[in-house]
Amino acid sequence: MTYSRNRYDKDFKKNAVRLSFNSSKPVKIIASELGVPESALYRWRKLYTEDG
Question: Where exactly are the structural domains of the chain?
């Protein structure tokens, strides 16, 4: 079985982070709607925010 890994560009990641902060939805739901793992979205939030 072959495992393929999705790669996301920087703009997609930044927009996902922006959406996660501006939305009233939980991060879990946003990640699911975007088709990314929840852990990846949390990691991007740390990476692309001033506090992170």
Answer: 26-52
